[in-house]
Specification:
The chain is of the alpha/beta class and 278 residues long. Helix content is 18%, strand content 26%. The strands form 3 sheets. A 5-stranded mixed β-sheet has the order 9-8-7-11-10. The protein has a 4-stranded parallel β-sheet with strand order 3-2-1-4, with helices on both faces.
Length: 278
């Protein structure tokens, strides 16, 4: 199967302080995206599309492109190499770009710029992230199973394997159902600390843990709460933090247990667990 690796490399690297996409990190000056390209070709990908700023063309060709064009795919064919420019010429006419805007608009804008080069199943990656060969093997296999249109797939990582020891990170936290299908909620969580604790959810349990939906009797009224991490809490949707007084009181409880906690006004709240769902 022909498949394209689309690399978003037009970021200006303002927070990093330079062109992080082309800074050498390997023992022989290899840049980060070279590792991704190497792994993707081994997994079966046949085309590489670089999304870059127009003034990066010569730099990208000299560092990666010319060598890549001489490489072979897993089937022995030449690797197809394309360059898409992320500039404002691709922005639809109905939108007026602010005169002071210099930076590109982001992922959707990048893909819009690359649309004329991609006609096969494809995967999108950042130039300055490391994914690992297993990720490319997995996504290539999944791409081959998709319908010709209207479907997509993604590779996810355990959050604990993506945090940094050198500051905070921003991650898109995805939820899947029991069939592994992505649900309609992807929350962008900012400032995640490397010291965060990732809690494993028991597959079979008769007690309350993070992720449980609990029906309780609260002063004669039935209330339903879902216990979540602090970043996902939403009182309007009945999602309460595991660190809240009610959340802490319910953790570990079983059906029929009675607990008492303190409400926002300082008064005691008595809870009786009626039902637990996972």
């Amino acid at each position: 199967m022909k498949a394209a690796l689309v690399i978003m490399a037009a970021g200006m690297g303002s927070r990093y302080g330079g062109n992080k996409q082309v800074d050498g990190i390997g023992p022989n000056g290899e840049i980060l995206m070279e590792y991704s390209i190497f792994d993707a070709l081994r997994a079966g990908f046949t085309k590489v599309v670089f999304i870059i700023k127009p003034d990066m063309r010569d730099l990208m060709e000299n560092m990666v492109g010319k060598h890549l064009a001489a490489c072979k795919t897993a089937d022995g064919d030449n690797v197809e190499v394309c360059y898409a420019y992320q500039d404002f010429s691709s922005v639809p006419n109905f939108y007026k770009v602010p005169s002071e805007r210099v930076k590109p608009f982001g992922t959707v804008h990048a893909l819009l710029c690359a649309r004329e080069f991609v006609h096969e199943p494809f995967v999108v990656i950042n130039a300055d992230d490391y994914y690992g060969v297993d990720a490319f093997k997995t996504i290539y296999t999944e791409l081959s199973k998709l319908a010709e249109s209207g479907e997509g797939t993604m590779v996810g990582y355990d959050l604990c394997n993506t945090v940094s020891e050198h500051g905070t990170v921003t991650r898109g936290v995805c939820h899947v159902n029991e069939q592994g299908m992505l649900e309609a909620r992807i929350a962008e969580i900012t400032r995640i600390l490397g010291e965060a604790t990732v809690v494993a959810t028991p597959k079979r349990s008769n007690s309350v843990h993070i992720g449980s939906t609990v029906t309780v009797d609260m002063g004669g009224r039935e209330r339903v709460f879902t216990i979540v991490g602090g970043a996902e809490s939403d009182a309007h949707e009945g999602k309460i933090s595991n660190e809240s007084p009610v959340g802490q009181a319910l953790l570990g409880c079983k059906k029929g247990d009675e607990v008492t906690t303190t409400g926002p006004t300082g008064r005691d709240i008595k809870l009786t667990v009626i039902k637990i769902e996972h």
